[in-house]
């Protein structure tokens, strides 16, 4: 392939930081390769620098179109998923660029990578060879569901990440709108594997997913730097679903934070509310998505400010899966009190409060930034307050 010639690969690396539009206007220095194809490789490689460091650092890696690269898992989330599986066989029905399959191959004896897009399948196969990862991987360029229908093999695990782009509806997240249709094909999947791992959009409602999938064993909510990227569902029809484990994980460099609870227990827990004490705690995005608000209060022994505020307080400083603050002052919310603080710059958060951050900034002339953190919220007695804090 022309793209793999040493001089072409050198050009791609040398121009990584160049403006793509300017580069395209200059045209290709190689008669046999279009500048558009070279530009695609440069743009994708630049994105891989942070998302796919192993691929970026490996020579002669070929990249897909940016859309395909944006849809693929990051190495961080793929590595996390790989810790959930084990055994002899796993089939990835929607293999894509192959990031998940690559990490699964480190934990499972044999992985089958299925991908409907022939070009993407070939790219994955080529890159696995460059990554020295082909010894226990098989590549099938075709429909993963059809492969599953035809094969006599039963698997320890099936992994599926249905496409959330519909030719009719555009971007989608409901299970029945994705391709392949997981709900339609679920009986086949359960017949062919002991356990199924499903990746869905962070937008999917947990209660709806549990109801539709019916055999949910665990749900993992995976955030990267406090942004929920994936919801992972482990399905197993041979276990009781009366206690579905919810596990939240925030992958943030060395400071990985996790918390877990039981879906059915959450609503049964009776918790206490309390006015602000010495410390304030704000859950990370994975916990916010999980809805484990009462479980946090009970397990970590912190008080909730109000039912819908989702902020917690304590006299003790604890290790908390989210942001932690020391409360410097609690102020009743009114114009006179806020003006008296003479704050020209601060970081503002609202929780269960009638005004948006933007409106508060405009109303009181507070710019973004600085070391002061302001939380505008509502207490259990419906009083509107401002908590002036410093981060700890």
UniProtKB/TrEMBL annotation:
<protein>
    <submittedName>
        <fullName>16S rRNA G966 N2-methylase RsmD</fullName>
    </submittedName>
</protein>
<dbReference type="InterPro" id="IPR054168">
    <property type="entry name" value="PG_1098_Fer"/>
</dbReference>
<dbReference type="InterPro" id="IPR029063">
    <property type="entry name" value="SAM-dependent_MTases_sf"/>
</dbReference>
<feature type="domain" description="PG-1098 ferredoxin-like">
    <location>
        <begin position="279"/>
        <end position="321"/>
    </location>
</feature>
<feature type="domain" description="THUMP-like">
    <location>
        <begin position="322"/>
        <end position="391"/>
    </location>
</feature>
<dbReference type="Pfam" id="PF18096">
    <property type="entry name" value="Thump_like"/>
</dbReference>
<dbReference type="Pfam" id="PF22013">
    <property type="entry name" value="PG_1098_Fer"/>
</dbReference>
<dbReference type="InterPro" id="IPR041497">
    <property type="entry name" value="Thump-like"/>
</dbReference>
């Amino acid at each position: 392939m022309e793209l793999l010639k040493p001089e072409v690969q050198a050009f791609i690396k040398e121009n990584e930081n160049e403006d793509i539009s300017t580069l395209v206007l200059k045209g290709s220095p190689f008669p046999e390769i279009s500048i558009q194809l070279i530009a695609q490789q440069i743009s994708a490689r630049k994105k891989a620098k942070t998302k796919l460091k192993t691929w970026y650092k490996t020579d002669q890696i070929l990249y897909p179109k940016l859309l395909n690269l944006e849809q693929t898992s990051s190495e961080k989330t793929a590595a996390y998923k790989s810790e959930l599986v084990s055994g002899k066989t796993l089939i990835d029905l929607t293999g894509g660029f192959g990031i998940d399959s690559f990490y699964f191959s480190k934990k499972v004896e044999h992985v089958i990578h299925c991908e409907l897009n022939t070009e993407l399948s070939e790219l994955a196969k080529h890159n696995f060879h460059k990554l020295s990862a082909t010894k226990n991987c098989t590549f099938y360029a075709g429909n993963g569901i059809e492969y599953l229908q035809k094969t006599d093999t039963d698997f320890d695990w099936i992994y599926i990440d249905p496409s959330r782009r519909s030719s009719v509806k555009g971007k989608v997240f409901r299970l029945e709108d994705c391709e392949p249709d997981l709900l339609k094909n679920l009986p086949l999947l359960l017949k062919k594997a002991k356990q199924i791992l499903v990746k869905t959009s962070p937008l999917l409602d947990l209660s709806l997913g549990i109801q539709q999938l019916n055999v949910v064993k665990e749900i993992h909510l995976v955030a990267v730097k406090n942004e929920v990227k994936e919801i992972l569902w482990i399905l197993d029809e041979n276990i009781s679903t009366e206690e579905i484990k919810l596990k939240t994980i925030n992958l943030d460099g060395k400071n990985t934070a996790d918390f877990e609870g039981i879906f059915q227990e959450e609503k049964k827990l009776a918790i206490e509310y309390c006015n602000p004490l010495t410390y304030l705690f704000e859950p990370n995005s994975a916990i916010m998505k999980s809805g484990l608000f009462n479980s946090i209060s009970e397990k970590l022994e912190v008080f909730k400010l109000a039912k819908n505020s989702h902020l917690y307080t304590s006299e003790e400083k604890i290790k908390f899966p989210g942001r932690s603050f020391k409360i410097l002052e609690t102020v009743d919310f009114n114009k006179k009190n806020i003006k008296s603080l003479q704050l020209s710059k601060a970081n503002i958060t609202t929780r269960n409060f009638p005004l948006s951050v933007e409106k508060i900034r405009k109303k009181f002339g507070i710019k973004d930034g600085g070391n002061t953190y302001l939380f505008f919220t509502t207490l259990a007695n419906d009083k509107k307050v401002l908590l002036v804090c410093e981060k700890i």
